[in-house]
Amino acid sequence: MKQLIMLILIVLLAVFIFLDLRFKHNKSWAYQNDERWQLITIKAAKVMAIFLDSIVILLALAMTYFLLTDGGSEMMTISDAVSDAFYIYALKYPVEYCTYRYYDQVL
C-alpha cells in the first residue's frame, strides 16, 4: 500500500512539473517577457521563498522538539527520511504552479 501511495505521489509530481513548465513557457511566449510577466514571476518567487522558508522553520522546530524530548520510541530509516524530504521539497512545484496561475488571473 505504501508503494502505491508513493507511485501516485510521484505521478502527481510529474504532472505538476509538466504543467508548471508548460504554463511558464506558454505565458512567457504569449506575454513576450513584458513587464506584466516579470511582475508575475517576481511575485511568484516571493511566494516560493516564503514557502521554502516556512518548510525550514517547521523542520527546525521539529528538530528542536526531538532534541529536547526523548525523540520518541519509533526510529526512522534513512530511506524513509530521504523520501519524506523529497516529497516535502517536491511540494514546491504544485505551489509554484498555483501561484503563477493565481497571479496571472489577478494581475
Topology:
Blueprint: H1 2-31, H2 35-68, H3 78-90, H4 92-106
Helix pairs in contact: 1-4, 2-4
Give a brief description.
86% of the residues lie in helices and 0% in strands. The chain is an all-alpha fold.
Describe the global form: elongated
Helical amount among residues, as a percent range? over 70%
Q: How many E-type strands?
A: 0
Please mark out the parts with pLDDT under 50 across 5 or more consecutive residues, or reply none. Answer: none
Q: What's the gyration radius in Å? A: 18 Å
Main beta sheet strand tally, sense and closure? none
Instruction: Supply the helix-strand structural class.
Output: mainly alpha
Please provide the ordered H/E string of secondary-structure elements: HHHH
Estimate the strand proportion. Answer: under 5%
Distance between the termini: 43 Å
Count of individual helical segments: 4
Mean pLDDT: 88
